[in-house]
Amino acid sequence: MAEQVMLPDPAMPDPPSFDGWTCPLPLRDHPTVVMGHGGGGQMSAELIEHLFVPAFSNPLLAGLTDSAVVTLGGAHLAFSTDSFVVQPLFFPGGSIGDLAVNGTVNDLAMSGAQPAYLSCGFILEEGVELSVVGRIAKDLGTAAELAGVIVATGDTKVVDTGHGDGVYINTAGIGLVRDGVDIRPQRAAAGDVVIISGMIGVHGIAIMSVREGISFGTEVVSDCAPLNGLVAAMLDTTPDLHVLRDPTRGGVATSLNEIAKAAGVGIELTERNLPIPETVANACSFLGLDPLYVANEGKLLAIVARDQADELLATMRAHPLGADAAVIGECVPDHPGMVVTKTAFGATRVVDTPIGEQLPRIC
Amino acid sequence: MAEQVMLPDPAMPDPPSFDGWTCPLPLRDHPTVVMGHGGGGQMSAELIEHLFVPAFSNPLLAGLTDSAVVTLGGAHLAFSTDSFVVQPLFFPGGSIGDLAVNGTVNDLAMSGAQPAYLSCGFILEEGVELSVVGRIAKDLGTAAELAGVIVATGDTKVVDTGHGDGVYINTAGIGLVRDGVDIRPQRAAAGDVVIISGMIGVHGIAIMSVREGISFGTEVVSDCAPLNGLVAAMLDTTPDLHVLRDPTRGGVATSLNEIAKAAGVGIELTERNLPIPETVANACSFLGLDPLYVANEGKLLAIVARDQADELLATMRAHPLGADAAVIGECVPDHPGMVVTKTAFGATRVVDTPIGEQLPRIC
């Protein structure tokens, strides 16, 4: 479904207000929720910055990381949540059940935590076949076993037909943060190297191919996978990893922009080094998409000091989920907060954060 | 909306199957999801027992308690989740934002934990006014502050118009379980006393009154409240509390049936001791409802050894959220797994678990 863009109305007399709550700028330009508010781009960031953070006023949420790191009973824990509204529910390489596990497992791993327990909340739409729910639950259970996490607690709600889309799932997860690691976007520093763990853009194109009924020659299969094993191997080699991020909604471009802004560094990518499968490249050129903005569900970005990059890369390539790992760029002191890419012709172009949503309901 | 009951078709040739997943009995009688699967009664229990527990095969989930108790990094933690799909979003005494905090805070408290951190996942429907989202977020933030918990991590997804209902919220929570407490339904024992912390049936009737546009004389205001403070006071007095349960969906009747079955005891209620506000009694008799089955969002059931009941009751009555606490029954060795009530006329009637949903989307 195309995004419904509402242009600001210069004649609008008052900001939308509800019982004492006034819509802050710049959200005021879009007084209703549009798909772009869920796209992981600028509109999502505005919603978080101007609506949720002031409402929940606390320092943890303002960090905008994939998971919060908290201390409870002396334990150093990562805590994270994600809702999953992907359509279709089943796609090449997985289902909403796999995504619900791996999405949260990966968010925890990106804090340097070993994921341990998941919660799982289903919102079912009246009329969906129980066999569909059963198959998704089975996928979820299998994915949890594969990732080595336990589904410890759950909840099921049912909504009337026409108020859901078969199955929505929320998972939250807790994990134990490894002693001595300090992984945060703020730690990216000029001179650091940017590494991607493998081929980009695969999940998004897998979803689009089934949703739009388009074949791109070879079937594109989602990369949906749990990254906690890869991260554990990386931390064994390189405990001083600076940043980890899984580039899901909004893709590599959005994740790197968030890191550049948080750390106040520039990031310079080398276009020819980006590992992009031919099928993804073809599909993107057909659909008018940029692979840098397409969602991944089994890839991570790592930012590390230059003198540790070779050893880290070797470790990653020795792991099945990091076999195609590559250095794709570096952090630079110039243009802080901005991501640029050097093209094959030596030109430089800005890789901005997308405003709304390129591919709706991709996870 | 009325529940759509699908009668079993004796001519149905095969159980519904999806790619190797076969619908187990007794779910087979309802091959699609109906509202009753989310009602917290027998159909919900069947879904958990026959579909989710086998899929997630692990001992924690099979306990069917409000929250799981796990050990991580040496810390003894409670972990719980709930999704909220209540309609309307705003009602007398609160909103979906208040419910989202108090529902999960209370689930954690029912394990004897002090809730510490919440996650919060929003599923927004395209087209809902941002001022509505903002007001809900503000309510959620205020409720978190009141309960003394921190919203540590969050997520926002947007679904197309016609696939949501304005705002759905999932919260998960973690809390620290107090040393030395062992609160589980299995600990209810013959001779124990059953205590309710206050007036029952208020939340459900508050929702129904606005949803149906019915006035019952006085406005009925939801009892939505965080119970962790009350529980802390109770545990100071009575660390050996046997069972705690907040009777939400399905009401007091459903919670007590679950406890009776888990512990293998009978429970005998004394009808005249049930604290029921006059407005709730009137509304229930008008709507054909039994207050024992109506949802509460700020009440708890406590089961405790008889010789500790007086002291515990005094502590509860000294707390603002326990002022109307009352002994409503006892655990008995007869009829294990069954709840009965003694009527004012000396007769005894069985208080069974409801099959489906009396009041849909109450939380």
What series of H and E elements makes up the topology of chain A? Answer: EEHHEEEEHEHEEEHHEHEHEHEEE
| Architecture (CATH level 2) name of the largest domain in chain A | Alpha-Beta Complex
Low-confidence stretches of chain A: 1-15
Strand order across the largest sheet of chain A: 11-13-10-14-12-15-16
Number of helices of chain A: 9
Distance between the termini of chain A: 15 Å
Q: Helix coverage percent of residues of chain A?
A: 25-40%
- Rg of chain A is 20 Å
Task: Kindly state the number of beta strands of chain A.
Answer: 16
Structural class of chain A: alpha+beta
CATH superfamily of the largest domain in chain A: PurM-like C-terminal domain
Name of the level-1 CATH class of the largest domain in chain A: Alpha Beta
What can be said about the biggest beta sheet of chain A? 7 strands, mixed
Largest interface, with Cβ-Cβ < 8 Å? A-B, 95 and 95 residues
Q: Roughly what is the average pLDDT of chain A, rounded to an integer?
A: 91
